[in-house]
Amino acid sequence: MNIHEFQAKELLAQRGVLIPSGRVCCTPEEARATAETLLAAGETLLAVKAQIYAGGRGKGTFTTGYQGGVKLFRTATEVYEGAKAMLGNVLVTKQTGPEGRRVRKLIVAGAPEIEKEFYLAVLLDRVSSRPVVMASTEGGMDIEEVATRTPEKIFKELVDPALGLMPYQARKIAQGLGLKGELISLGVRLLTGVYRTWWECDASLLEINPLCIVRTRQNQRVLMAVDAKMALDDNALYRHSDLQAMRDLEEEAPLEIEASKFSLNYIKLDGSIACLVNGAGLAMATMDIIQHFGGRPANFLDVGGGATKEQVTAAFGIILQDPNVKGILVNIFGGIMDCNVIATGIVAAVRTTGLKLPLIIRLEGNNVEAGKKTLEESGLDLASATSMADAAKKAVMAVSGS
Q1: Torsion over CA: 351, 352, 354, 360 (sign)
Q2: What global pTM score does this model have?
Q3: Sign of dihedral through CA atoms 257, 260, 262, 267?
Q4: Structural contact between residues 281 and 332, judged by C-beta atoms closer than 8 angstroms
Q5: Residues with catalytic annotation?
Q6: Are the beta carbons of 19 and 65 closer than 8 angstroms?
Q7: For residue 402, what pLDDT band results from cuts at 50, 70 and 90?
Q8: Are 259 and 318 within 8 A, CB to CB?
Q9: 376: confidence class by pLDDT, cuts 50, 70, 90
Q10: Which domains does the chain have, with CATH numbers?
Q11: Parallel, antiparallel or unpaired: strands 327-334 and 273-277
Q12: Half-sphere exposure (CA, 13 Å, Cβ side) for 98?
């Protein structure tokens, strides 16, 4: 589950990480009032930042022609006009796709005087099965670009999950960023707070880009999280009712929200062949082989290892809400799952929905003969396949009219 920048910053601040002063606003009037408060408190430059689940906001363009989802202003009137141009309008960035995202919230915050920018992230290293802190002196840039051009400027520190981030590791990272004197102790404190946020919130990713050395109005040099991106592990949300409340359904695709109600993993794509598969790896392979034979997948849909008849029926209902779908490929390998349960669910779903689209089914594994018998005796117009390649070929041919 993704959360907004302002929410990630709130969680960081609760654990001692310094963030810019400001607040989230939903109307231009709120933005102007916040700006007036910040200016009265001594801020001289203000940042207005659109809140959407996507990066690249600063370089994005609104469909109205307004440039940039992150802007700097000096007066409350300018903030008001900027907020008016952003709120309610669609922002297109390199991560949103051409359809963009509608901006319903924004941050109005002080824009500190930045001396140096860094990159910092905490995530799970799947090779070592441990948390890893990743940092770079090249802040403010996409980390993928840094990795391509100057990989030597990215360094990593693996963390023992039983011990957490140790002080000596935090000092090592701070020194690797080139921090000196008092900034080293400030860096240790910030790194400890960032790691605690990642760990205590069961996050899958916490990224601060940029992490900055800033000069305060009191002429002190401090470390501040100027931006923050955070993704939470869906599997651990049952432990965090407060984090569940942060979910913004308006930022999620309606079909994905519907799928989550039935514990289905669904992501809409732009092709015409819908996929219903058990297991994420098999689902990815299914999408690949459809593409290999000249088709385009309409979705990623993993019903999981123990799907029920009700989940399969719900999956069909979700698939059929996509008007781009011209055919459906069901690819099931029964390990834990009983193929006959899937077959029963398919038959029930086809009858319930009155499916008229081509349906290609490939079943293998646990109780597969019973599953095939259920499909054969259903009297429905179903196409069976003997392999993934056979299923993909038949699906591509069906949607192309061959």
Answers
A1: negative
A2: 0.79
A3: positive
A4: no
A5: 119, 207
A6: no
A7: low
A8: yes
A9: confident
A10: 21-110 (3.30.1490.20), 113-243 (3.30.470.20), 253-400 (3.40.50.261)
A11: parallel
A12: 1
Q: Are 357 and 321 in contact (CB under 8 A)?
A: no
Contact partners, residue 11, CB within 8 Å, separation at least 6: 197, 201, 230
Q: How far apart are CA 242 and CA 240, in angstroms?
A: 5
Least Cα distance to 158 among 201, 207, 195, 204 occurs for 195
Low-confidence winner among 73-87, 91-105, 136-150, 235-249 (lowest mean pLDDT): 136-150
